[in-house]
Structure formats: structure tokens, C-alpha cells
Specification:
TIM Barrel; 47% helix
Length: 350
């Protein structure tokens, strides 16, 4: 393990006013989205769509890294350039999703465990050779009542997922790959802001206990958490400012300052709301009281939705789709400085 190299990569991933594009949908997931947008399902269309994203003008100005799926990492541009090289040539770090998805956690109804540790060391070595410099592993934590009637999450589910995240992070760092550690407390359900804060606090405490126990080099990783937010079915939705205050308070309590950056997931929020929340959090920092880590974004749908719908699988629509992606990347870059305002959205669309 080369700690200095890991630190340099992690710092580049969370560089000022840049964030991460999550384009790591599995084949099944991206084809569901294609179907919803009326796009024919084929490997070539999957490749063409990813090239559309990666070739958007000025991508490297706002995007520091791209998370890819196994298939995408191995694909090339239409002119024959491997995607990892194509991105690296723009100053964008190539990344790879390495987990194999969530599976039921046996004996714990309605809870899950993320799989993919078997053979991961060998896969990481191959991915590094293909150009990947960081990786992602997502753990999923449900909130609410289980079908058996008890409250979720259980302590065991939190601990099991934290251990898997820590083992993954150790394997990544020894392969020379920066791990994105993603413990996601789901927005699904009717829980309020206070309950999300309580669960997120417990999850982050347990995850960092596991990372310490596994001797993870904290300066060489990036955290990708949920925001502290009301459940989608909650009757009372917290305001943007309430979300910002609750999220930053939770992070200050549980995330060591050694971690260089926090790249939030959007978790089902709309594109504009995810941007507003990120900006409000960064606006809480002052010269006298700066935040100990960079706060940035690692959005998937919140960066891609308009581009996918605008493209429709037709080459003639590519410039319009890229403009949408470019706009969303710019808005989130502005949010990283705490300077986003709703009128900027209107000015850009005028």
C-alpha cells in the first residue's frame, strides 16, 4: 500500500468545486431506465449513452471522477479509445463499482447485506490494470417497521454491513485503489428528520469503528453518505436549511477530520433539491469556522435524468442531452461553494 498515492487520489476526487458522476448502473438497472425512456435495449446503446455522458463539453471542469460498471470500464469510445483513458485524458479519474448488489440478510426480514467480497482482491488487481483508481461499495440500511413488527434497522444489520465496508476498503487500499465507503440510510418510509438523524448517527459511528479496527488509512478514502432527510412518506418534510443543519451536525459528530472529503449520494431526491441541500450545507462554513472536510456530490440520477430523457437513443439529441448534464454539473459545482440560488436555474434555462 502506498499511502501518499492514495491520499493524492482521494484529494483529487474531492477537489474544490468538483464532484463525482455515478454512472455505475448495472445492465439490469440501466435497461429499466432505457425502457422507461423508450430507448431500445442493446449493448451498443449502453455504450453510446455512456460515451455521451463522458464526452460532454467541459466535463473535467466540474467532474473529478466517474464511477463505472464492469461492462463500461471495458468499453471504448466510437473512435476506439478505452473509456478509462478517455476520461483520464480529460483529467477525470476512472472509478469502478465493485460490490455485487444487496441480498436478503438471512433471519433478519426486510434487511439486506451487500455481497462481493469473494474474489475481490483479484478483481481489484484487474481493475487497476484497466485504469481504475477508485472504487465504490454500497451498503443499504432500511428504516421503519419490519414485516415481523420490530423496528429497523437492527444493530446486527448495521454491524454486518459496516464490517463488509471495512473489509472492502482494506482490499482496495492494498490494491492501490481509493475506496468510496457508501453506507446509505434509505429515504423510503415515513420516518421524520429526527429518526433519520438517529439512524445515520448510529450507522456512521459503527462504520468508522469498523474502519479503525481494520486499520484503514482514513486520509486515503472518501465517504459517500446519505443526507439527514425526512422519509419520502413523512407527512412533515424538513426544509432545506433543516436538512443542512442536521446533516452537518451528524457528520461533525461521527466523521474524523482525517477523511479528506464527503461526496453525498442523492438517494432519490430531485436534481434541484439535491443541489439545494448541498449548497445549504456548504453555506454553513465560515472563514472562522470552516468544515473539516470538503463536501461535494456523487450523484447518479440527479445528474443524469434529464440527459437520458433528452437523448432518447438518438444521436441528433446528444448535444441537447449533454447541455443538460453540463448544466447540472455546473449547478452542483456552484453548490460546492455554497453559492447556488434558484434563480441560477432560471437564468440557465432562459
Amino acid at each position: 500500500m502506498n499511502p501518499q498515492a492514495l491520499e493524492q487520489t482521494a484529494q483529487a476526487m474531492v477537489a474544490a468545486r468538483r464532484g463525482i458522476l455515478a454512472a455505475d448502473e448495472s445492465t439490469g438497472t440501466i435497461e429499466k431506465r432505457f425502457k422507461g425512456a423508450g430507448i431500445p435495449l442493446s449493448e451498443e446503446n449502453r455504450r453510446a449513452y455512456r460515451e455521451l455522458l463522458f464526452s460532454a463539453p467541459d466535463l473535467g471542469k466540474y467532474i473529478s471522477g466517474v464511477i463505472m460498471y464492469d461492462e463500461t470500464l471495458r468499453q471504448k469510445t466510437r473512435s476506439g479509445v478505452p473509456f478509462p483513458k478517455f476520461l483520464a485524458d480529460q483529467g477525470v479519474l476512472p472509478g469502478i463499482k465493485v460490490d455485487k448488489g444487496v441480498k436478503p440478510l438471512l433471519n433478519f426480514p426486510d434487511e439486506t447485506i451487500t455481497e462481493g467480497l469473494d474474489g475481490l482482491a483479484e478483481r481489484l488487481a484487474e481493475y487497476h490494470g484497466l485504469g481504475a483508481r477508485f472504487a465504490k461499495w454500497r451498503a443499504v440500511i432500511s428504516v421503519g417497521r419490519s414485516s415481523g413488527g420490530w423496528w429497523l434497522p437492527t444493530r446486527f444489520a448495521i454491524e454486518a454491513n459496516a464490517q463488509a465496508l471495512a473489509r472492502y476498503a482494506a482490499l482496495c487500499q492494498h490494491a492501490g485503489i481509493v475506496p468510496i465507503v457508501e453506507p446509505e440510510v434509505l429515504m423510503d418510509g415515513d420516518h421524520d428528520l429526527a429518526r433519520c438523524a438517529e439512524v445515520t448517527d448510529a450507522v456512521l459511528e459503527t462504520v468508522f469503528d469498523a474502519l479503525h479496527a481494520h486499520r484503514i488509512h482514513l486520509e486515503g478514502m472518501v465517504l459517500k453518505p446519505n443526507m439527514v432527510i425526512s422519509g419520502l412518506k413523512c407527512a412533515t418534510q424538513a426544509s432545506v436549511d433543516e436538512v443542512a443543519v442536521a446533516t452537518v451536525r451528524c457528520l461533525k459528530r461521527r466523521v474524523p477530520a482525517a477523511v479528506p472529503g464527503i461526496a453525498f449520494l442523492s438517494g432519490g431526491q430531485s436534481s434541484e433539491v439535491a443541489t439545494a441541500h448541498l449548497s445549504a450545507m456548504n453555506a454553513l462554513a465560515t472563514p472562522a469556522a470552516p468544515l473539516p472536510w470538503h463536501l461535494t456530490f456523487s450523484y447518479g440520477r440527479a445528474l443524469q435524468d434529464g440527459a437520458l430523457k433528452g437523448w432518447k437513443g438518438e444521436a441528433a439529441n446528444a448535444p441537447q442531452a449533454q447541455r443538460w448534464l453540463q448544466h447540472r454539473a455546473l449547478m452542483n459545482s456552484t453548490a460546492c461553494a455554497g453559492a447556488w440560488r434558484r434563480d441560477l436555474e432560471q437564468a440557465a434555462s432562459a
